[in-house]
Design a protein that fits this description.
Layout lengths: L11 E8 L6 H10 L11 E10 L2 E10 L6 H9 L3 E7 L3 H18 L6 E6 L11 H11 L3 E3 L8 H25 L4 H8 L8
Parallel strand pairs: 1-3, 1-4, 4-5, 5-6
Antiparallel strand pairs: 2-3
The structure holds guanosine-5'-triphosphate and magnesium ion.
Organism: Paralvinella palmiformis
GO biological process, one term: signal transduction
EC number: 3.6.5.2
Length: 207
């Protein structure tokens, strides 16, 4: 029988950062994902972090979400938050063109801090329930995402549409990116058939 990791052993942690302009719904998405609740009131965030155990494709993992302030004035503070991130949900509101324009600056800052073109990143068009107030065409957002080589997904924190999807898809990107860097650093076994079996024995690597 194969030995399972002990229950007390901390699961792999995936660190997700919510970025985007003020009021686009970063907190609403986070709270909907965490607690299945939609928060109507707008209370600007300073910075809040959340942690939850989830089952990702059969593996127990932990997601760590840092919900940042859209109105953060200090770039240096943002840099610090971004540095700790392993993946980014870059959120705008489909009902606010300005918030879409701002995603380019967030992307730039993330790439500068992480110095990695392939950092796990998703462009998220939130408030898709406000179709009658749409200011950003799907094609416009898709073409930007294509240019960046990242996925584009529309969500609604109000109806919960695609909320789980964006968090889980991002965790998969993070997972893949971690596996890729482990392989690149020589952890790879010579026998590829054995690799599959070893997946079950995968240990938590503390960096
Ligand atoms: N209709 C609709 N309203 C939403 C949605 N997501 C968020 N809102 C509302 O938009 C307002 C701002 O949402 P927040 O989640 O606080 O925005 P935020 O991005 O966290 O803002 P900052 O913390 O200032 O950066 C709140 O009143 C929410 O109820 C959505 O998907 N649809
Ligand atoms: Mg917020």
């Amino acid at each position: 029988m194969m030995s399972k990791p002990k229950a007390q052993q901390p699961a792999t942690i995936h660190k997700v950062i919510m970025v985007g302009s003020g009021g686009v719904g970063k907190s609403a998405l986070t709270l909907q994902f965490m607690y299945d609740e939609f928060v109507e009131d707008y209370e600007p965030t300073k910075a809040d972090s959340y942690r939850k155990k989830v089952l990702l494709d059969g593996d127990d993992v932990q997601i760590d979400i840092l919900d940042t302030a859209g109105q953060e004035d200090y770039a240096a503070i943002r840099d610090n938050y971004f540095r700790s991130g392993e993946g980014f949900l870059c959120v705008f509101s489909i009902s606010e063109q300005e918030s879409f324009q701002a995603t380019a600056e967030f992307r730039e800052q993330i790439l500068r801090v992480k110095n990695d073109e392939n950092i796990p990143f998703m462009l998220v068009g939130n408030k898709m329930d406000l179709e009658d107030k749409r200011q950003v065409a799907v094609e416009e957002a898709q073409s930007r995402a294509q240019q960046w080589n990242v996925p584009y997904v529309e969500t609604s924190a109000k109806t919960r549409a695609n909320v789980d999807k964006v968090f889980y898809d991002l965790m998969r990107l993070i997972q893949r990116s971690k596996e890729a860097s482990q392989n690149a650093s020589g952890v790879k076994k010579p026998n590829s058939g054995k690799d599959k079996k070893d997946k079950k024995h995968r240990k938590c690597i503390i960096l």
